[in-house]
Amino acid sequence: MARYTKPAEGSWTEHYPELGTDMVSYGDSTSEEFYKLEVEAIFKRAWLQVGRLEEIPRSGSYFTKEIKVANTSIIVVRDGEDVRAFHNICRHRGNRLMWNEDPRGEISGNARMFTCKYHGWGFGIDGSCVNIQQEDEFFDIKKGELGLVPVHCDVWAGFIFVNFANEPSQSLRDFLGPMILGMEGYPFEKMTDKYGFRTEVGANWKIFSDAFQEFYHAPWVHGTQHMPPVTAQIREMGYEAPYYAVESPHAVVTTAGSVHRIWEMPSELVKPSDIATKSGLFGPWEGTDLGELPAGINPGGIEPWGLSSFQFFPNFAILIWEAGWYNTHQFWPTSHNSLVFEGNVYCTPSTTATERVGRESAAVTFKEYSLQDANTLEATQMGIEAGVIDSWPLNDQEVLVRHFHKAVADWVKQYQGEHEGV
Amino acid sequence: MTMVPAEFEELEPFAERWALATERERWEARLSSTMDELQAFYDVMLPRCTDAMAYCDQFPLHDMPEQPVNLLRMIYSFVLISFAVELWRQPHVPDTGATSYDRVSEPQP
Question: Which of A255, A263, A346, B49 could serve as a FRET partner for A157 with CA atoms 20 to 30 Å apart?
């Protein structure tokens, strides 16, 4: 029996008839061939989130980012009011331009000029070539044509996106579309305390992302994060979301807020350390008052509202929590069955020790459940790669998993269509 | 001088192991402890955690003397080990033995 009203068609899945209700294949997640297509069709054509504006606060502030799926490293730099991105490659002999110690590592800092470690060529933060060591030794060298190779770069709500296409087919705003743009006005820029995490996981990037497209797994993978009687209750009830929306290629799922206030629950049902710190799984009990939030944060108008998980195609998610913080997940494929998983928890700067402990508690919990996801999904990849089964059921709470694989297939199909006979 | 303020003297024997500046060090300490060690630290922290937070609140967060900073870091450690003691009954998260999730940035203190 559904706890929440479903669309008139009877289910969220049937509300989007193009998704169908059939069993699905995950052949798209075990094939090296398909992965090569995804690289060209998706990762070299879609806008990809690479960081926050606060990471490069002043002119000359920069960071490098290793983007293996595009077989490159980029430099993202603030140039006055502009943000620029360049391939991190010296125009002289191909040396990776900005790195320290490990050329595969990522760095950040402040620079007036990027100087190559190999022969000392220098590039301005606008990318122009400004210094050639012993310039008169070269032959007809055209300094003005030897600037860093730019990567399309744009900023939305303080999130920096890049696009590796020669000419992106859509602007960033057109790519994001009205549903994502509806988040505008959320005070991302005020939430500058960041708890960042990173790991490498042996799973296909979509198989991994699938676990962040649905909360059907939460009672089983994460249910044990509660005191045992609550775990049993959660598993008995199962999971149901009050609202899903697909605005392909992006999507959102909202969860309902708890009508039970944790501090009013019988103490034997609450972790003693949560009582001591007045915080826990969903952050500080008291929450952070961010003022009135844009309506688009809770697109289904769900009351009480708990969380909205916005899935940005192809590999990024922003989760906005009722308690006044947000987190991001990002899935960077490194091969057809491996990825780098990055997660960040963002809060307004703590002003007191008590506030800081509450946020620490949220960040600690975030890690506990991310670890549960990471290991489970390596196990899932192994099960699928066995190749024994290639037809899998998805329920209505997994509608966004169904959509996600279809969106990937659609982009690949479109790319193939454009390149037929080429 | 003691590592933590005198009114928290029962925490002092645990300060050297648990007053750690980064989550990476705290996580390492959790994984390399026995359950008896985690339980002993938990048992001494739980009844004093609320007091310790109130004590630290007397100081500006970004201009704290060393003793309350140590105390605050011990509270972070307490939060970090609470899952191991209260739920997992083992130092690492069950069924996550083959993976890691490293904290690469965090506010200070």
Answer: A255
CB within 8 Å: A363 and B46? no
User: Which CATH superfamily is A48-167 part of?
Assistant: Rieske [2Fe-2S] iron-sulphur domain (2.102.10.10)
Specify the CATH architecture of the domain A12-42+176-419.
Answer: Alpha-Beta Complex (3.90)
CA distance A377 to chain B (A): 11
Question: pTM of the entire structure?
Answer: 0.96
- Chain B residues with CB within 8 Å of chain A CB: 23, 46, 49-50, 53-54, 56-57, 59, 61, 64, 68, 72, 75-76, 78-80, 82-83, 86-87, 93-107, 109
Task: Nearest by CB to A272, from B46, B72, B96: name it.
Answer: B46
Structural domains counted in chain B? 1
Q: B14 to chain A nearest CA, in Å?
A: 18
Tokens of A165: 């296409």
Spatial neighbors of B65 by CB under 8 A, at least 6 apart, are: B59
Residue B68 maps to a domain: yes
Q: Is the ipTM of this complex over 0.90?
A: yes
A82-127 pLDDT per residue, tens: 999 999 999 999 999 999 999 999 999 999 999 999 999 999 999 9
Query: Average pLDDT for residues A164-186, to the nearest whole number?
Result: 98
**pLDDT tens figures, A392-407:** 999 999 999 999 999 9
